[in-house]
Amino acid sequence: MTSAVDEGRRAVPSILRGQKALVTGANSGIGKATAIGLGRAGADVVVNYVSGGEAAEEVVEEIKSFGVRAYAYEADVSQEDQVVAMVARMVEEFGTIDIMVANAGLQRDAAITEMSVAQWQKVLDVNLTGQFLCAREAAKEFLRRGVVPEVSRSAGKIVCMSSVHQIIPWAGHVNYASSKGGVLMMMQTLAQELAPKGIRVNAVAPGAIRTPINRSAWDTPEAEADLLRLVPYRRVGDPEDIANAVTVLASDLLDYVVGTTIYVDGGMTLFPGFATGG
Ligand code: BGC
């Protein structure tokens, strides 16, 4: 007898078969779902994490259950030497990299008058510099290897995990919103620079997704009702909603998508306040 889970696995086409993916911040939340989603679609996956090795090993086990390869790798994406070593090890282990999902990110919220330079810097270091380092190291390997037509039409894919806050200002979160605004321009600039070399750079911008980063926004019925006023589709997103977008975006199904952000936000970027006002 096959379980519903087995049925689900079979229903997902292997659109990433033979590709090698690295997902940063992949032991929880959106990164975890994405690493699992890429593995389910046939990719071998490196599960990066900075703390919480046990959770990362669980993600690895789940990915391996799809018959692909996976291993966990501890690295702080804001540290250049660690990112360089992480990609070098992946090339040793898997031969190359085809898909870099620069996902790791965090929040350190405070009103501007209360925000320390440390809070500002930490968020910029991880959310923006971390993505820059991951994109740079992946791009070097993509250029070294070039296109392998049996694997993919492109020489490589970089998916930046952004946020609706790359375009929606967010009071009390100036560090986070600035980092994601930076991700938008970094992504577009890299896309312009690398597209002639056959590399596709794009972003996925989640809205309110049920993960540890925003637990307080959904973990009581009152908080959830408040949050849903900002979501025209009236549901909080699941990490799998993002994983599905990344999986398809990284595949050749979307080979002609270059320098674009896919918003996966239940309509949060539609200015829902104007549904009844203006
Ligand atoms: C933030 C969440 C927030 C969501 C929608 C995300 O980028 O990390 O905390 O709930 O945007 O505002």
Helical content (DSSP H or I, runs of 4+): 40-55%
| Strand line-up of the largest beta sheet | 3-2-1-4-5-6-7
Which residues form runs of ≥5 with pLDDT under 50?
Answer: none
Our Rg estimate from Cα atoms comes to 18 Å
Bulk shape: globular
- What is the CATH topology assignment? Rossmann fold
What share of the residues does DSSP label as strand, in percent?
5-15%
**Small molecules bound in the structure, each named once:** beta-D-glucopyranose
Provide the CATH top-level class.
Alpha Beta
Write the layout of secondary structure elements.
Layout lengths: L3 H8 L8 E4 L5 H12 L3 E6 L3 H12 L5 E5 L5 H15 L4 E4 L14 H29 L10 E6 L12 H21 L4 E8 L14 H8 L10 H12 L10 E4 L14
Parallel strand pairs: 1-2, 1-4, 2-3, 4-5, 5-6, 6-7
Helix pairs in contact: 2-3, 2-8, 4-5, 5-6
This protein binds beta-D-glucopyranose (BGC).
Describe this structure in words.
The longest helix has 29 residues, at 117-145. With 278 residues, the chain is α/β, with parallel strands linked by helices. It has helices at residues 4-11, 29-40, 53-64, 80-94, 117-145, 174-194, 221-228, 239-250; strands at residues 20-23, 44-49, 70-74, 99-102, 156-161, 199-206, 261-264. A 7-stranded parallel sheet has the order 3-2-1-4-5-6-7, with helices on both faces. It has a single domain, classed as Rossmann fold. 45% of the residues are buried. α6 (174-194) links the parallel β5 (156-161) and β6 (199-206). Beta-D-glucopyranose is lined by residues 107, 163-165, 207-208, 213-214, 217.
